[in-house]
């Protein structure tokens, strides 16, 4: 049993606290390996229109793969994959117009 002195709204009280059971902590410490949750965002390098989309959500991609073709000023630009990974999120569709620096897809 422990005796504590507490103050509530300016009044002082003495309180006895009895421990009913004492138990040892049974918390297990598991070592968790952090997952690599890094992502890479693919932004539109220029304003234009997506004329061909070669990937879909979940597609496995490698660095250098052509993800899509972006037409701008009557020129077709291959948008290459910057890293190895998979398409986590696809934010565009074929024939969609995109703006400069618009987020087009996320690779995880």
Automatic annotation (TrEMBL):
Signal peptide, first to last residue: none
Annotated PROSITE patterns: BIOTINYL_LIPOYL (PS50968)
UniProt key word Disulfide bond: no
Coiled coil: none
This protein's record includes keyword Ion transport: no
Keyword annotations of the record: Biotin
Protein name: Acetyl-CoA carboxylase biotin carboxyl carrier protein subunit
Natural source organism: Mariniplasma anaerobium
